[in-house]
Specification:
By secondary structure, the chain is α+β, with helices and mostly antiparallel strands. Strands 5, 17, 18, 19, 20, 21, 22, 23, 24 and 25 form a 10-stranded mixed β-sheet that branches. A 7-stranded antiparallel β-sheet has the order 2-8-9-10-16-12-13, with no helix packed on it. Helix 6 packs antiparallel against helix 7 and helix 6 runs parallel beside helix 8. The longest helix is centred in the first third of the chain and has 22 residues. It is globular.
Length: 641
């Protein structure tokens, strides 16, 4: 398990999850809820909705018809992945036994040639690989591969990895150069094949990933051919509605409009786009190809400069579950799917592995604490599929969905959070996220443990202590987040003349001794954020930010209608710790102005200048925590006075 392929052109590689311990006031409780409640809850949902029974039926163990949506297999695979990650850091004999039982049921459904997809085995066995654009065969396979890799790394068992390799070999025997052309309508298998390659060292998986990526944007498109073939397996009308404009084929929905090296704008379904870009970054990590890297750079700039919400959420439109045009970022109708935030996080993490630039960590952190975390309630069993930035009181988290991709995606990211906290290069250890706990790594042939104490993200003080059996030379890289205006670093009480690396990583190079201490202090002022003038719906408004957290106003905390509140020139904003509110948060308190609604009586319109304003109290909570106290109005953008 230690012979991972890390990529010749990756400048960083992750620290194994088993070597990271998270023990802090913010993430540890959430990971505990995920481990003790969310995983059990989601397993029961997979049982109750027939997702697991489908495998029993496909194996011939029980009789019955396929249940649910044709890509239901993928939700169970994500649950397996989340559970395996959890076992990697928190061994649990009972949970591992349940996982083993599920894997036995999955493996039993695999056909003799390696094929495994319960929908096609049960419903359309003669239509395999005939509707790649819609039917998610390759997508489901990808989630199986990622689950298998996580299970192998977390437990050392090959039971699911062998299933995955047999299926990957089957797919490789069908698709590729000099074989059949094809690619997934919903990207996922591309990055999963890269994960499988890194664990097994099997180069065929890497080359198959490359093949699928290179197929996009080629003409004639496989998807276009499928649309005009009425014999394909199911969902032809759905295929046409997303891929056709009138009678003309347009592949933008699935990023099939241009070859990937020519793509400059993020288009189409947001989750699909993120998974594609993740795989492109992984391929660049192996090949170093400049053209592919240049495309990723331009796509990243388009997302972060014109098509991303202030929360790190992406994809404003429900029509295509994705992107529209530059600066189109509505608040009330924002789609901002939780899965898309997950994709934004893992894409930026992969870019960070390539270039070790803090700008990628900044976006990763932004989406993690805001656009992603809002997707799960504090109880761990209710979820948002979409994450609006403004609500009229009609939004509420649900326990499950017919299309349930988001809940297990939340579970697997929370269970694997330690992977995103640190990185290693030849010369040092990189701290990406400031999370209390410890990490164990080998540096210059010596084992070291770095312990961290912090109340981040509520406070900017981070204290680290070095444990090593002997002096060791290496560089410790600390990130100064883009939201921080002032930072200071001391080692053993002495202030440092720090050297900056990339845009905001600070390099501390020295011979480290056992007991050395590092103190990083990050200022966390409350800031009022304004939007680009082209985002017209946010003009004359500001959002509140403190540290990595975006804030919002909820109706439950105010006597006045939050959509009409106005922030005066001097609102007297102050941060206040509230241990008993929403699991323990820091709120922002101050003063706002509100229209005197009673003065309007029954008048609907009148000349301007007659509305009196009164002073009212303002309480802002972290955006991720909204809707944990019932339905109500909410807004992230507040009128300026």
């Amino acid at each position: 398990m230690n012979n991972m392929v890390h990529g010749k052109h990756r400048r960083l590689h992750p620290v194994p999850l088993r070597d990271v311990v998270i023990d802090d006031v913010f993430w540890a409780p959430r990971i505990k809820i995920n481990r003790e409640h969310t995983l059990a809850y989601q397993l029961q949902q997979c049982e109750d909705t027939g997702r697991i029974r489908n495998f029993d039926k496909a194996a011939g163990v029980v009789d019955g018809e396929f249940e649910g949506i044709f890509f239901n297999d993928s939700d169970l695979y994500k649950w397996i992945e989340a559970t395996a990650y959890s076992l990697s850091t928190y061994p649990d004999a009972d949970l591992e036994e349940k996982l083993d039982q599920v894997i036995v049921r999955v493996a039993a459904a695999q056909e003799d040639d390696g094929y495994l997809n319960t929908y096609f085995i049960l419903v359309e066995p003669d239509k395999k690989w005939t509707n790649l654009g819609v039917m998610h065969e390759l997508y489901c396979a990808g989630h199986l591969f990622q689950a298998a890799v996580a299970h192998y790394l977390g437990t050392g068992k090959r039971t699911l990895l062998d299933v995955a390799c047999r299926f990957a070999d089957h797919i490789d025997g069908i698709f590729g150069p000099e074989k059949r052309k094809g690619m997934p309508g919903h990207e996922e298998i591309e990055l999963a094949l890269m994960d499988l390659y890194r664990v097994t060292g099997e180069a065929r998986y890497f080359h198959l990933s490359e093949f699928f990526i290179d197929q996009r944007g080629q003409r004639p498109s496989v998807f276009e051919q499928e649309i005009h073939n009425p014999g394909t397996g199911g969902k032809v009308a759905h295929n046409r509605s997303h891929f056709m404009v009138g009678e003309t084929y347009c592949g933008a929905y699935a990023q099939d409009h241009l070859p990937v090296r020519e793509q400059r704008e993020v288009v189409g379904h947001a989750v699909r786009a993120m998974y594609l870009y993740c795989a492109m970054a992984d391929v660049v990590g192996e090949t170093g190809e400049p053209a592919l890297r240049d495309a990723l750079e331009k796509l990243w700039h388009n997302v972060t400069r014109a098509r991303m919400y202030v929360t790190g959420g992406i994809g404003p439109s429900s029509h295509n579950e994705g992107f529209t045009q530059d600066y189109h970022l509505p608040n009330t109708t924002a789609y901002a799917e939780t899965c898309a935030a997950v994709g934004n996080i893992i894409w930026n993490w992969r870019l960070l592995m390539l270039d070790r630039e803090a700008r990628f960590t900044d976006v990763m952190e932004l989406a993690l604490y805001n656009g992603f975390l809002s997707g799960v309630a504090l109880d761990g069993t209710h979820f948002f599929y979409v994450n609006p930035l403004r609500s009229n009181g009609d939004r509420e988290r649900e326990g499950w969905f017919g299309c349930a991709c988001c809940p297990p995606n939340v579970a697997r990211l929370l269970a694997s959070l330690g992977l995103y906290a640190y990185g290693q290069s030849e010369d040092g250890l990189w701290m990406h996220l400031y999370i209390a706990g410890r990490v164990k790594v080998q540096q210059s042939g010596t084992e070291i443990t770095l312990k961290t104490e912090t109340r981040y993200p509520w406070h900017g003080e981070v204290k680290m202590a070095m444990e090593t059996d002997q002096p060791v030379d290496f560089t410790l890289y600390l990130r100064i987040p883009d939201w921080c205006r002032e930072a200071s670093i001391s080692i053993n009480g002495s202030s440092q003349e720090s050297k900056s690396v990339s845009s905001a990583y600070t390099a501390l190079k020295r011979t480290w001794q056992n007991g050395d201490t590092i103190h990083l202090s990050l200022s966390m002022p409350i800031e009022q954020i304004e939007a680009h003038p082209n985002i017209t719906n946010n003009q004359g408004k500001v959002a509140l930010r403190r540290g990595p957290m975006l804030y919002c106003l909820e109706e439950i905390d105010h006597d006045d209608h939050v959509h009409g509140m106005i922030l005066p020139e001097d609102p007297g904003l102050e941060a206040e710790t509230t241990p008993d509110l929403l699991g323990g948060i820091t709120v922002i308190r101050g003063k706002a102005l509100a229209p005197d609604r009673e003065s309007w009586n029954d008048v609907l319109y009148r000349p301007s200048g007659h509305t009196a304003l009164r002073v009212t109290d303002l309480t802002a909570i972290p955006y991720y925590a909204w809707n944990n106290r019932g339905k109500g109005n909410m807004t992230t953008w507040i009128h300026e006075g």
